[in-house]
Design a protein that fits this description.
heterodimer, A: alpha+beta, Multidrug efflux transporter AcrB transmembrane fold, Alpha-Beta Plaits, 2 domains, four-stranded antiparallel sheet, 10 helices, about 10% strand, B: alpha+beta, Gyrase A, domain 2, 4 domains, elongated
Chain lengths: ~300, ~500
């Protein structure tokens, strides 16, 4: 059904370029204004006490007051939960004795509020966080390199580059949105980003496969742009449906999956949407641009 | 491959998965919680139980190697990374640094001591491993009382005996200390003395500083002189830790008590003064009793820590994640709920959009999940919250293969081919696309799985296995079902 539509995607690619550019640039500016992405304790180091105050009447101001009295700052955040009165207290990391910091905070909280439940305690020391940060950059680079290699091997170099551009585009969109919403960057978000890379690539490859198949006849080859456009349209059904089923599942994770998974699910949702969009409008468009610059040598497959 | 052969393969694969999964089912739903905890203990702790019970536990232990474990974030517990406290070491050794080898050696001994402590503490399935050059990773899952477990692990076991400097101590006044309990002007403490604090439990059972005490800075006796440590109760029934000193230690203790009759002895554990008994007379027996408002459990833990010995190097916590059991349970509930709702959504969608073919795709999806769980059970996999997320994502992406196939079949039908021919060429054309697409996702997950962090690894592995299993279920099995269906029902028009 959807295949019978003949959207002039390639023909109007300038619009999609502008849309992407706007989102990404404003994201980059936003990040620059805040001097980088907000980092979670995984990458910045720090200590976290997640406490469930059984008494619903206590407000965040009181909790912040307790933290201030321990001398470890005032970083307190309330967790959005319809049932529980839960807060996350966060301090910077110290060179040593971070467990003492935790003990002090815990005794201050029990002293003030009596019986509470400590749901989660996290300590990430300075060395570990630096190590995680370094490793993350490495992983990102390795992943992109492997993907470029594989795509070049299965298709052609230009397809590989176009695919990588689409991926980088997706990652930038996700990071921009995360920055706009003030969410923190931690190992979960990193895992989400890597998953999005995998998913987006998955999507892009399906379309590239179609393009390659359709380009087998030399007649199709002469009308390069039209052929690419048709390929995208032919894959439209599949692309939309798969995105929908994946989004359905991710939405379920976001709504029902509990607080710990919310940000993770959110990043994935944004990523899937961006990934679908980039496969259809960006990756293929870039292949066309490259062809206009340097026409493909006709391969007799 | 003819049909019968293919059917046999599918049945065998399902059988293996069922076998794997049934073990998990029996473990979590047929055995009681107490039995499960018993099965997690080491054999020496079980000597007291009757024979038939021990046989049952033995069977359970065998079963346990074939189930899906729950990770720390699902059952609660502690994850700690310990590293040497280089600063403290420099202070103690007066600026001399240990060599790389000496540190490695020391850490090896630390692992031995930790294993000893943790074993006797009776935590289920503790894991102690090394990480990098100088780090130790300790995982204590299912800890109902993470604080207690942490104290057993981190208790440096440093026991020291010092004499109280009565003169300087009696000169201490409240106004010499700031709001946080620290001394403002430290010049009143002479070079031969040091400031310490008496730690007493408050009404919430948390130890806090009660009083500042000045001690003569000479360690007269330490934990290396301890021969044996046990727990006893005094005449009031309060638990106390009793230890006997070795010959050298007993001599030292005798001299200590002889020379300091009338003074107070500070018994310091891990830098905290626990008690300050008055020395009334010389004590020759080499038997020391520590009372310090312990609970029975605390006394036992303390004796355990003293018995296992102090760490050869001071350690600090580089990383720690503690999840309380309530959060773990909530997470499991939430994860399963999200998984079921998501799966139902996808199943309904496929049914509505692709009709009978959608039904076949749904069967493949169910099989996919089933095989995934079976594979994880056989791998004795530890499931974490990201792992559940990985499974949920697999559900969403699993139908993709079928969507690609079905769209192709539809196209083939539109070009006028017969039902059987359309199915055949649809599968053929789709296969290459599916393979390529899945390969790239696998690359991403492979990279992720190399990432040090445990839970993320779990996510990557669940997703990878899910994809591999997906190709079997969505391609091999559905094609079989299509062929069977078309033959049996002599289909002329495909419901797709």
């Amino acid at each position: 059904m959807l295949s019978s539509l003949n959207l002039k995607i390639i023909q109007y690619r300038k619009f999609t370029y502008i849309l992407s550019a706007v989102i990404i640039f404003s994201g980059i500016i936003n990040i620059a204004i805040h001097k980088g992405l907000k980092m979670g304790i995984d990458f910045a180091g720090g200590n976290i006490v997640q406490v469930d105050l059984l008494d619903k009447g206590i407000e965040i101001g009181e909790v912040r007051g307790v933290l201030i009295s321990t001398g470890y700052g005032n970083n307190v955040r309330k967790i959005e939960d319809p049932v529980k009165n839960t807060y996350i207290l966060r301090t910077l990391t110290h060179e040593k004795d971070n467990d003492k910091v935790i003990e002090d905070i815990k005794s201050a909280l029990t002293y003030r509020f009596g019986n509470v439940i400590f749901e989660r305690i996290d300590i990430v020391g300075p060395r570990i966080s630096k190590y995680l940060l370094r490793t993350s950059y490495l992983i990102g680079i390795v992943a992109l390199a492997l993907i470029l290699l594989y795509t070049t091997f299965r298709f052609r170099f230009r397809f590989g580059v176009a695919a990588i551009c689409a991926l980088v585009h997706d990652v930038l969109i996700v990071l921009s949105l995360i920055s706009f919403l003030g969410k923190e960057m931690d190992t979960f978000i990193l895992a989400a980003v890597l998953t999005i890379i995998g998913y987006s690539l998955n999507d892009t490859i399906v379309i590239f496969d179609r393009i390659r198949e359709n380009l087998k006849t030399s007649k199709a080859y002469e009308n390069y742009e039209v052929t690419v456009n048709t390929s995208i349209n032919q894959s439209l059904s599949r692309t939309v449906i798969t995105s929908m089923t994946t989004l359905l599942v991710l939405l379920s994770l976001y709504i029902f999956g509990g607080n710990t998974m919310k940000d993770f699910a959110f990043a994935l949702i944004v990523g899937v949407i961006a990934g679908t969009y980039s496969s259809m409008f960006i990756a293929s468009a870039l292949v066309v641009e490259w062809h206009r610059w340097k026409p493909e040598k006709v391969k007799k497959v | 491959m003819n049909k019968t052969f293919r059917i046999v393969i599918v049945l065998i694969v399902i059988g293996i998965a069922v076998w794997g999964f049934s073990s998990t089912y029996i473990w979590y739903f047929r055995y009681t919680k107490e039995d499960r905890e018993l099965a997690n203990l080491t054999s020496e702790k079980l000597v007291d139980y009757p024979d038939e019970k021990r046989l049952k536990i033995k069977e359970m232990k065998k079963l346990r190697t074939r189930i899906i474990n729950l990770g720390l974030d699902l059952q609660g517990g502690i994850y700690m990374v310990l590293e040497p406290d280089y600063e403290e070491m420099k202070k103690r050794s007066g600026g001399i640094e240990l060599t790389q080898d000496e540190i490695k050696d020391a850490m090896r001994r630390v692992i031995e001591i930790l294993r000893n402590r943790v074993d006797k503490f009776g935590v289920s399935e503790p894991t102690i491993t090394t990480q990098g050059e100088d780090r130790i990773v300790v995982e204590l899952p299912g800890s109902k009382d993470p604080d207690r477990a942490k104290n057993v692990v981190m208790g440096r076991g440093l026991l020291e005996f010092l004499i109280v400097d009565e003169d300087t101590s009696s000169n201490l006044r409240r106004d010499m200390f700031d709001d946080n309990g620290n001394l403002i002007d430290s010049s009143i403490i002479s070079e031969t003395s040091m400031l310490s604090y008496l730690w007493v439990k408050n009404e919430f059972d948390v130890r806090e500083r009660q009083r500042a005490v000045v001690l003569i800075n000479e360690v007269l006796l330490d934990g290396s002189s301890i021969k044996r440590a046990q727990v006893q109760t005094d005449q009031f029934g309060k638990p106390e830790v009793v230890f006997s000193l070795n010959t050298g230690g007993a001599k030292k203790f005798l001299r200590l008590t002889e020379e300091n009759v009338g003074k107070s002895l500070a018994i310091v554990l891990d830098g905290k003064i626990l008690s300050m008994p008055l020395i009334r007379e010389r004590i020759p027996g080499g038997q020391v009793r520590i009372t310090g408002d312990f609970t029975m459990k605390e006394a036992q833990d303390q004796a355990l820590v003293l018995r296992a010995g102090a760490f050869p190097v001071p350690l600090q916590i580089a990383e720690q994640r503690t999840i309380g059991p309530s959060l773990g349970e909530d997470s499991i509930e939430a994860g399963i709920k999200a998984a079921i709702i998501g799966a139902i959504g996808v199943v309904l969608f496929m049914l509505i959009y692709y009709k009978l073919s959608g039904f076949i795709a749904d069967i493949a999806l169910a099989l996919n999940i089933f095989l995934l769980l079976g594979a994880l059970a056989w791998l004795n996999f530890t499931l974490t919250l990201p792992g559940i997320a990985g499974m949920i994502l697999t559900v969403g992406m699993a139908v993709d293969a079928n969507v690609i196939i079905f769209e192709r079949i539809k196209e083939e039908i539109r070009t006028g081919k017969t039902v059987t021919a359309s199915i055949q060429s649809g599968y053929e054309k789709a296969f290459r696309t599916i393979l390529d697409a899945n390969m790239t996702t696998l690359i991403a997950t492979f990279v992720l799985s190399q990432f040090g962090s445990g839970p993320i690894k779990g996510f990557a592995i669940t997703l990878s296995i899910g994809i591999v299993v997906n190709m079997f279920a969505s391609i091999f099995v559905t094609k079989l079902l299509f062929s069977m269906g078309v033959d049996i029902f002599r289909v002329k028009k495909l419901s797709i």
